[in-house]
Protein 1
Amino acid sequence: MTEAPLTYAVLLKGPGAWEPVKVAEAYAAVMKVPFQDASQQLRGHWGIVAESLSEAVAKNLAAKLLSAGLDATILPKNLLEDLPEPLLTCKAEWDDASLHLLPKSGERVTLAWTRLALIATTSYREVIRKTVKGQEGPSIAQKAASLGLSMATGLPINIGGKAREVEKVQETTEPIFFLDLCERKPLRRFRIDFGDFNYACLGSRMGYSSVSNFRALVETIAAKAPSAARNQGTTALLDGKPVHALGYDSLKDLDRECRRLLTLASLRDP
């Protein structure tokens, strides 16, 4: 039986914000596709530019990215980190040596600060739909017309009918935040939903806003685990910048960014 040929992935190594135009130009040139198609294919790549390439094509793409000023590397695709399912975590405590997490399903987990490999934050806008009840009846113009006709004819005339109760769907967009904490090998991943977490661990720093409490939580964890890698979202949040403006569309983007960062960490520290 013939073994399947080894395929390669191309990753960006730099920690900074992506330059989508440069990446798309390099990809379009090497893969011989229109720039617009390349831009669409690369949406949400989060630093993993391509997977399942031949070695020659992967080297060509990495060289093209390097010539555009983007630090890139290639590696066999089977060396890309596979992420375990995140354990949704609702409570935390800490001391100088360790972080103690309480997943919603499972027992309390103690994680030494030195074993924290990645602090990854994301935020994006979610559409919130609510069904509300209200009254709907004649418009102001209809009411005025009804009054005029009634005065002219002496008859009770009601244009537009009577007021009635109706249901309407209202849509709003709100930013939501998530934090993934990844432990070094064996890899474990813990996820915090900013709106479903007990912030009592913040003590005197705890406030009334989930967003400000979430920021304080990330700041505390980052200060206690300075050796842990940080994704773009965490860096932006610590710098006081809007995380949702970075282009995250869903948790899939966070997953892909985490795969890249954890893979690069494994290459540095196998």
Protein 2
Amino acid sequence: MASPRVVILSGQSLFTEGVASRLREHISQLELKVIDPRGTGALEQIKDYQPSAVILDSADPEVAEVCPLNEILMAVPAVKVLQLDPRREQFQVVTSEEKVAGLVRDLVDVIMPSD
């Protein structure tokens, strides 16, 4: 099984650097890349790396400005985005999948799946 690839978007904040350090301690087979969202081509780096997860600090306004969630999801459609909220000591997981939408029924099937 391939090692999971994870990107942490961090502008060198102590919080996200601590998260990176702790992940490295707990998951030895993890491929972890820290990308500074203020650096050149941060979104392209994410796309090229093709991570299974992207971790970001939701309290960092520059992350949302430079790498908006919708652009991350478009760059890596099947990625999980973990938005950390250090103020509330929780995180939100955003997942994505792509579907073909040829008919309105395709949308209805996603909104109201049949059992």
Protein 3
Amino acid sequence: MHRLTVPALLLLITGCDTETADPKETGGDTAVDTGETGDTDTGDTDTDTGDTDTGDTNETGDSGIDTSLPPPPTTGYFGPPALVVLADDGAGAAKVMVIDTAAATSTTITGVTVPKTATFGCAGQYVWVLSTKGDAATPDVAYGVEARNLVIGATIELPAKFDPKAVTYNESFWFAGDGSASVMSYDGAGAEGGSIDLSSVADADGIPEVRAFIPSDAGQAAVLARTGSGATTKSGVAFLDFAALSITGSGDLAGSNAGSAAGGVPGALMINLEASGTSGGALELFDTTSKSSAGNAVDFSGVTRVATVSGGAGDGTMYVAVDDGDAITVHRYISDGTDLGTITTNTIANGLAVVQPYLWSGEGTGTSANLIGYDLASGAESATVAIGSSIYGVAACAPPPMPPNDTGDTAAPPE
């Protein structure tokens, strides 16, 4: 394994406002309050003493629209932190399990049976399970799981043989698949919207094979694997304008076979390249200003990798499970190639995810399969969740960090 030094790139943290309830009202209501909890006045002109606004927008005596509940974000993932597992269902397919990391328990989502090759995505308020049926007569399906209440909140039918691989949220839900050159949008009810044709940035088969959507300082980036033409060509990145339904720029990576793990750092993206041919793959940097490769942060020549995931939370950290023949160790790399330290695990393929304060590792097979939580600070094995059937994938979704005491109101914040 070789680490190539490139200029250090600082941590990028994307903020997201959250709001709390308005301060207590001091009078002025002349109409019936219909959205307040604890307020039963019907035209009072004295001081409200039981008013605890919870998001009402129908008051006519207040000083303006109640903003105690913020509108949902228009981009990214804004559900609760979630850890999910794709596991054998005992009938030749796979089931989806959501993990309660505090209680170290799992819940199987009712109504979701998918192929073992299904993938996960994070977009809007949902953890998405992306499933392909594999035949020309049956639509592929994307299931939006609400991690907060463990139900399917959205079911979107995609074109037959769309083979979905990536999803993002930008006013609508946008899906990319290995069976289409276009990125397609749908609303939460499943109605199809606009699309963006990416055939101009594809490889010889006309399909770019999008592996991930990554926000960046240059706009929304789509990571292109370009592996479907029978020969692996250079991977690349395209920048998309969802409002204008257009590509705003693109460029090539130096390497090939881009995977789904990628993260944004100021001025660049760090993208995982899987092993292919004689190449062991790499963590390659892509300069978002010049739209070109900035070289490898880490070169994995001569290394056997088991799994690679991005760290989440916008910090650009990549976690790589390496098998040296004697043990499996997870390395934590930042964008200048520095290894922050290792954790010894027994990780299986596709078996890594990060939900603070743990690195979660899928381990074992069959009835002995477990999800193990390793403390990120000490590396100690600190939690175990019994899965009980072979694990095919582990993934995590987390919203961007939110600054404390940001209420969105015009009043001064609390001391």
